[in-house]
Amino acid sequence: xxxxxxxxxxxxxVFTALLIVQTFVPxxxxxxxxxxxxxxxxxxxxxxxxxxxxxxxxxxxxxxxxGITRLIVAYTQPGDMVSxxxxxxxxxxxxxxxxxxFFAGVITNKFSNEDLxxxxxxxxxxxxxxxxxNTLLVIGLASLFFVNNPASLTSYxxxxxxxxxxxxxxxxxxxxxxxxxxxFTAVVVPIIVTPLNYVLKKA
Length: 203
Known about the structure:
single chain; 203 residues; mainly alpha; Arp2/3 complex 21 kDa subunit ARPC3
């Protein structure tokens, strides 16, 4: 039992170090394509892998760490005004991050008793859901918090028809990033998790 706890702590430490590198080293965790829009992030992949390996409880804890780093970046080195406005809000920073890790673990648990072929399908779903959870919750929460003053956010999104509902503006502007992230995460998670699971079972 003590050995298992030590392994868990070690894995958490390694992934946390990786998350910090992704967060604070330019163009590793946040890849900026259009200066005015939030960056495409590879961090949902890291969160999905961790949640898939360690389960929903630890996945949520790791998601919390991601949310805290998001909050720190928003206050210390935001890359664009949209990110600053969104992620200086603790709820928008923390809730999607926590639930991304949690759902990755939940989905994997549902496939835990299946054979390897179906487990890999579970890993694909785990990656996609972790990433989409983050994107859709950020969009949904932003729509709620800016519902009374959408122009304060949409004015930084380019030439936008201000009569369009905020939710659909965010879907059209942030949804593309989210779709790219979801596809990338869904493809890569089973490639990485399958051998890591094998190694962890031997530990």
